Amino acid sequence: MDKIEQQLLQYVDDHKEEMIKFLGDLVKINSITGYEKEAQEFVRKKMDEIGAETEFLEPDLKQMFEKFPEVAQLPSIGEEGLDMPLMTDDKFTYEQIMASPFDRLKSYKDRPDVIGRIKGTGGGRSLILNGHIDTVPIGDASKWKHDPFGAEIEDGKMYGRGSVDMKGGIATMLFAVEALQKLGIKLKGDLMMQSVVNEEHAGGGTLGAVAAGLTADAAIVTEPSGNSGTIEDGSNGGVYWQVVIKGREAHAGYRWKGGEQFGVSANEKSAFIIANLLKMESEVNKEGTRMSFCVGKLHGGTYATATAPECVINGVAYFYPQLGTGPAGINKVKKLIRDAVFGVDDPWLKANPPELKFQHYDDAYKLDYSRDAIFKNVAGSIKDVLGLDHKVKVAGGGCDARHLGNQGGIPAIVYGPGSAALAHSTDEFIELDDYIKAIKVLAVAIYRWCNGV
Ligand SMILES: [Zn+2]
């Protein structure tokens, strides 16, 4: 640790209270996916204060669909969850979105990314710091013990929607950069902060930034990576699916006609399909977990006394990068699901094939270890700042590192405060001690990276 690095750590220690207060103020601004503007204005103001050159960049839907048709998604709105108002056989095309009656999904109007740039003095390596401002909805408010927008602090934890996923990470990047700026530390490489919209369910904020040509020699996504000693070097992908199964409705008392089955419940057939999907999952996972398959929602039938005419199942197959990164992994998982849904050996299902639709995709990502300088940089910063040997894992859910890495070709890793296991949950919280530690590590990592230390 050189003298400048010691100063950075001291700066963070001396300004802890302000850093915690700022995070609380950010948590208090509701920024559920689709309603990010107010929080983005707040973040931009902070970037201005620390001397960055800032701009609002509205993700350009047309541009991202043109450049990355296989991974671009329609913009999503938090309270509508994942049940998007459109459903096609495969992922939505730009033309389908434009032809739909849902105007709010046709652009990112009033949903800008905030970009903050600090120009380097030259000769160093450039770096992108990326985080998302949007959060999932709060769910059932009565289940929260703490006000979801109260930023209440108890036992060193700050509670609130978005506290860990990932306003903590946004604040971490802002204060790591503030420490460098306030101490007057010059960076050789260009530094770019990105506070993006619509990471949840879509990844459109980051994909928009990539499609607009924003790039750097490396990127750090400040999503919660577990604790301040853990780096994520990849993220899982996900394929969202829906199966509609047809039955034949009949009064329960008339299920059998002349010894033949007449009434067929779509619900009983759904059991066969689910069993086949889970069999596929266990085969994929024979030599280690590669897939995390979820039957999330099931709805079928009208009365207890009638065989169900229809059953609709919705779910997601999360999958590890080992099954394939980028569009190739998505296509492989789609084929596995298709084969399982249509491969049930049942005469009714053969004669009345179910309907399978795919709704939404996240590609899986894994750092290219032939370009892992940024990984080594952060691992070294963890060691020197915290005295810990770093741990490494892959993010369990989707993460915008995939767009920076797969679509942008930028070596990207995930390093940020808190545990992602608490993300999206009731009484979500962040450990404040972890938040402060991550600011220190990140400040040192930026300094070393951009100056080639
Ligand atoms: Zn997140």
Concise overview:
Helices cover 36% and strands 20% of the residues. It has 453 residues and is α+β, with helices and mostly antiparallel strands.
Looking across the biggest beta sheet, what order are the strands in?
A: 1-2-6-3-7-17
What is the CATH third-level topology name of the largest domain?
Answer: Aminopeptidase
CATH superfamily of the largest domain: Zn peptidases
CATH hierarchy class name of the largest domain: Alpha Beta
How many strand elements?
18
Question: How many domains make up the coordinates?
Answer: 2
| Major β-sheet annotation | 6 strands, mixed
Task: Classify the secondary structure makeup into a structural class.
Answer: alpha+beta
What distinguishing features does this structure have?
Aminopeptidase; 13 helices; four-stranded antiparallel beta sheet; single chain; six-stranded mixed beta sheet; binds zinc ion; Alpha-Beta Plaits; 453 residues; alpha+beta
Any overview of this molecule?
By secondary structure, the protein is an alpha+beta fold. It has a six-stranded mixed beta sheet with strand order 1-2-6-3-7-17, with helices on both faces. The termini are close together. It is built from 13 helices and 18 strands. Helix content is 36%, strand content 20%. It folds into two domains: 3-235 and 365-451, 3-Layer(aba) Sandwich (Aminopeptidase), CATH 3.40.630.10; 237-362, Alpha-Beta Plaits (2-Layer Sandwich). Helix 2 (16-28) crosses helix 6 (163-182), helix 8 crosses helix 9 (326-342) and helix 11 packs across helix 13. Zinc ion (ZN) binds next to helix 6. Residues 132, 165-166, 199, 223, 423 line the site of zinc ion.
